[in-house]
């Protein structure tokens, strides 16, 4: 056999081996997400668990920045036909995703088309209702759902002579006064301020955020958060800055160090900061339900969720979508969800995961970690407290943040800031309505 013949035979053999290897190679499923830090590590752990559980598909998680950056990147990628299979989108992007006709592959369709048995009744009602069509069909898969809670420094409370976590806003200011008197730099702060102090304050007190059942029943909605109840508490908080009861620390989670380093004794933000607080805080801490403003309501209604779901985008290889469906079933399993809940503080998205966490003794060993679940299921949701579904709300939140920062800076009263936020926000609602008629 000549040298050239041998070379040709080797090349053919190598090609055959490559083709054989390719035939058995796992098909990739791209997952873009917004989970950084410890949560990002857990996302990788979930994907790795699925990948090891079977050999047909390989889920590849890719961190794309914060929620806004991840959603923006996915939209741009879809236009360039370079989209991932799965993208994590925060709850206020729901209306925008629903309007992206032709881009989204609804989960209820995905499961049927893939031939995967799927029962959406296993998910917690307070979570799944946010992401279903009017006829109760699931659009995106619930993944990381949370609600704001009141975090407090138990050691600081003991030093200041505070017996228990505040249950009302009057008690919040009273506790803040004692904390500052005991040597703390501030009584309380909060993060994700639109979510905590506009959206959840309204839901917690059964106040309308907007018309048309907070946007659930129509695009021709208008904001209603510019009312005396919301203005009253925000003005009171702004005025308390002079006594260091409240200190502003940023729009999202930037104020976390103010709590974990012992600067502020209380912090209102997502239950999902559990993992970070557990890692960073050098003091005894706990969480409690949000305080009630007795001038706004006699008792609490229920809080609403934040966090994100996993949306499936069209335009990928048909065969790969069965992998997406199988991955969604895997990550909805009680073992995976119980781990995710216990490690992060996000609400378990299934009843089975909640029951498993209870059986494992997690709530007994970690008092307060079921606060989020209690808040979400405190009462049957009303049209004012089942959530919100406004178009362009990502941009509206930026407007609300700007107006609230003008309030904290003393440039506007709460009444004026809220009026301006509603007026500017309504302009975006009308643009969204016209674009999606």
Describe this structure in words.
Helices cover 48% and strands 12% of the residues. With 437 residues, it is of the alpha/beta class. The protein has helices at residues 3-24, 37-53, 67-79, 94-99, 107-114, 125-128, 154-160, 169-181, 193-204, 211-215, 228-239, 256-260, 274-280, 320-331, 334-344, 351-359, 362-365, 371-376, 393-408, 414-435; strands at residues 27-33, 57-63, 86-90, 141-146, 148-153, 186-190, 264-270, 285-288, 306-312. The termini are far apart. The longest helix has 22 residues, at 3-24. The strands form two sheets. A five-stranded mixed beta sheet has the order 2-1-3-9-4. A four-stranded mixed beta sheet has the order 6-7-5-8. The chain folds into two domains: 22-146 and 306-359, 3-Layer(aba) Sandwich (D-Maltodextrin-Binding Protein, domain 2), CATH 3.40.190.10; 148-303 and 392-435, Periplasmic binding protein-like II (D-Maltodextrin-Binding Protein, domain 2), CATH 3.40.190.10. Helix 2 links the parallel strand 1 and strand 2 (57-63). Helix 2 packs antiparallel against helix 15 (334-344), helix 5 (107-114) packs across helix 14 (320-331) and helix 7 crosses helix 8 (169-181). The radius of gyration is 24 Å and the shape is globular. It is built from 20 helices and nine strands.
């Amino acid at each position: 056999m000549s040298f050239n013949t041998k070379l040709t035979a080797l090349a053919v053999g190598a090609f055959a081996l490559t083709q054989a290897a390719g035939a058995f190679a796992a098909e990739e499923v791209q997952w873009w997400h917004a989970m950084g830090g410890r949560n990002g590590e857990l996302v990788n752990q979930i994907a790795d668990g699925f990948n090891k559980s079977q050999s047909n598909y390989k889920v590849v998680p890719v961190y794309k920045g914060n929620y806004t950056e991840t959603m923006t990147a996915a939209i741009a990628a879809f236009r360039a036909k370079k989209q991932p299979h799965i993208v994590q989108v925060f709850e206020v992007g729901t209306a925008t995703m629903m309007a992206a006709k032709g881009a989204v592959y609804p989960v209820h369709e995905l499961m049927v088309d893939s031939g995967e048995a799927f029962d959406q009744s296993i998910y917690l009602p307070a979570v799944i209702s946010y992401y279903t069509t009017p006829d109760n069909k699931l659009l995106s898969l619930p993944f990381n759902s949370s609600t704001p809670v009141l975090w407090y420094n138990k050691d600081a409370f003991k030093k200041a002579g505070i017996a228990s976590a505040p249950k009302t806003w009057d008690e919040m200011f009273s506790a803040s006064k004692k904390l500052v008197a005991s040597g703390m730099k501030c009584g309380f702060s909060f993060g994700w301020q639109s979510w905590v102090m506009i959206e959840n304050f309204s839901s917690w007190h059964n106040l309308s955020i907007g018309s048309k059942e907070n946007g659930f029943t129509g695009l021709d909605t208008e904001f209603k958060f510019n009312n005396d109840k919301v203005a009253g508490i925000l003005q009171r908080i702004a005025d308390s800055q002079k006594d260091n009861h409240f200190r502003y620390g940023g729009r999202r989670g930037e104020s976390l160090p103010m709590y974990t380093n012992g600067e502020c004794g209380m912090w209102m933000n997502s239950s999902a900061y559990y993992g970070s607080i557990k890692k960073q805080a050098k003091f005894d801490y706990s969480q409690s339900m949000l305080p009630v403003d007795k001038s706004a309501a006699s008792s609490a209604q229920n809080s609403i969720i934040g966090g994100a779901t996993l949306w499936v985008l069209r335009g990928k290889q048909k065969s790969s979508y069965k992998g997406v469906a199988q991955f969604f079933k895997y990550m909805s399993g009680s073992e995976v969800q119980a781990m995710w809940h216990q490690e992060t503080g996000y609400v378990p998205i299934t009843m089975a995961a909640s029951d498993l966490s209870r059986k494992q003794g997690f709530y007994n060993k970690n008092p307060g970690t079921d606060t989020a679940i209690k808040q979400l299921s405190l009462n049957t949701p009303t049209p004012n407290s089942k959530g919100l579904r406004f178009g362009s709300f990502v941009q509206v939140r930026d407007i609300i943040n700007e107006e609230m920062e003008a309030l904290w800076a003393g440039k506007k009263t709460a009444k004026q800031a809220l009026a301006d936020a509603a007026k500017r926000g309504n302009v975006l609602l009308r643009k969204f309505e016209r674009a999606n008629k």
